[in-house]
Write a structure and sequence with these properties.
eight-stranded mixed sheet, 418 residues, two-stranded antiparallel sheet, globular, Rossmann fold, alpha/beta, binds NADP nicotinamide-adenine-dinucleotide phosphate
Length: 418
């Protein structure tokens, strides 16, 4: 635990300059969590926009190859092997990439819980999967559990239904997501829809299932076999702001009316939550948390996107049949280790590490102690605050102690100046 005593204070790196300007307004869990973006002058705002453009130009040179036309996958079903006796959760397995993943896990003998909102549609998908794999490996099962991700009460109920039925969970695939959502703009808890559904609800589910994940990891023969896989997007590269997320996007949804921006923010937030979860817990509970872009495919995720968006990008997208291979790599490959997760590495299609994530986003992902700006850690604590009424947060709080240490250090520095 970091206590912020005298000698340690002097040996610590100086906090980034914005830090002192963050408005520490709300207690959420143990740490004080900023709910406002630090105020910015016009000059800083313009400099940040130019930086995003510059970083995107650099990415353009490699981005198409990396994220739309990747080399053939080196990891697929035959590398996973049999999944008999293992249990999986796939959110959003009623459609698109989640459906392909559920099908692959089932064919290999996995017991697959699909958490989805439409039972009739999901049962129809189960029928298709069973027809496609009439003789799956032993133990294969498909189970439906209802979940409505726009309401954290439903997330709690789904987690309870799962844990009442199962003693183990090998990989939690947090796949469900929505883009360009049209209609209702706020979730039941008043969050912006994309961030609420794609990010905060997924985090709530992860936290509710943490005890069963940790138990499975403790009993597992192989280290790093129990994982949580988070869905991000190529738009993390394109649209994320400097530092990746906005610190007021949970508390001030009215400031975020643009659905395309919100989708990108939610997906970057997913990466940040995976990285922060790994850092805070990884070494202790044995669960590997990893995020990445599964690749870009012609699925229903674009159902509400305006025509001009679809017309512009449709030719870049691939058919969905093999869309699950990145998830297979993230969920099962030995190339994904606890060290990678704790370092916050980011996966891309079709099963590789991102060779050049945007530096200003990586900076937001990294904690202050490692030279980053600590946005991921602050956002993590905000999410704890957002979900704690609905799910119990596991008591591993090493990072919280560090944040408290930072605050104490700042107070000590201030006292020294006075
Ligand atoms: N397709 C791409 O090009 C692409 C690229 C990068 C990342 N991704 C990510 O990959 C993941 C899967 O997307 P996809 O392309 O397979 O899209 P999809 O076919 O639309 O599947 C999305 C799944 O999420 C579920 N879902 C959406 N809102 C929900 C809610 N409020 N409550 C419960 N479930 C909800 C959907 O349920 P219903 O079936 O009931 O609608 C569906 O099962 C998403 O996280 C997406 O952001 C996709």
């Amino acid at each position: 635990m970091q206590t912020g005593t005298g000698p340690q204070i002097q040996s610590r790196p100086t906090l980034p300059s914005f830090d002192s300007k963050i408005i520490m307004a709300k207690e959420s869990g143990s740490p004080t969590v900023p709910i406002e973006e630090p105020p910015k002058s016009w000059a800083v705002a313009i400099a940040e926009t130019l930086r995003v453009l510059y970083e995107n130009l650099a990415l353009l040179l490699t981005g198409y190859q990396h994220q739309f036309n990747p080399p053939p996958p080196t990891f697929s079903e035959e590398h996973v092997g049999t999944l008999t006796g293992k249990v999986f959760v796939v959110t959003g397995g009623s459609s698109g990439i989640g459906k392909e993943l559920a099908s692959a896990l089932y064919s290999l003998g996995g017991k697959v819980y699909v958490l989805a909102r439409n039972q009739e549609k999901t049962e129809g998908v189960f029928g298709e999967i069973r027809s496609a794999h009439p003789t799956p490996q032993a133990g294969a099962e498909l189970k439906f559990v209802a979940i409505e991700l726009s309401d954290l009460r439903s997330v709690r109920a789904a987690a309870d239904a799962f844990t009442a039925a199962e003693q183990r969970l090998d990989v939690l695939f947090l796949n469900a997501g929505v883009a360009h959502h049209a209609g209702q703009t706020r979730t039941a808890q008043g969050l912006e829809w994309h961030v609420g559904v794609n990010t905060v609800a997924a985090f709530a589910l992860q936290e509710a299932l943490e005890p069963v994940l940790a138990r499975t990891a403790a009993a597992a023969k192989a280290a790093g076999a129990v994982r949580v896989v988070w869905a991000a997007s190529v738009l993390v590269d394109w649209f994320a702001p400097v530092n990746g997320v906005r610190l007021d996007m949970l508390a001030r949804p009215e400031r975020y009316p643009k659905v395309a921006t919100n989708y990108a923010l939610s997906k970057t937030a997913n990466w940040f939550l995976a990285a922060a979860s790994a850092r805070r817990r990884g070494g202790r509970n044995g669960v590997v948390y990893v995020a990445g872009n599964p690749g870009s495919y012609r699925t229903d995720v674009w159902r509400s996107a305006p025509g001009y968006v679809k017309d512009t990008f449709w030719w870049l997208l691939r058919e969905q049949q093999r869309s699950h291979v990145t998830y297979l790599w993230m969920g099962f490959s030995d190339e994904v280790t606890m060290q990678d997760a704790v370092a916050g590495r980011y996966a891309i299609c079709d099963g590789r590490w991102h060779p050049n994530p945007r530096p200003s986003v990586v900076q937001g992902m990294k904690p202050v102690e490692e030279g980053g700006t600590g946005y991921a850690d602050v956002f993590y604590d905000q999410c704890v605050g957002a979900v704690k009424e609905h799910v119990r947060i596991s008591p591993l709080r090493e990072k919280t102690e560090t944040l408290r240490g930072l605050r104490q250090r700042k107070q000590a520095e201030q006292a020294a100046c006075d």
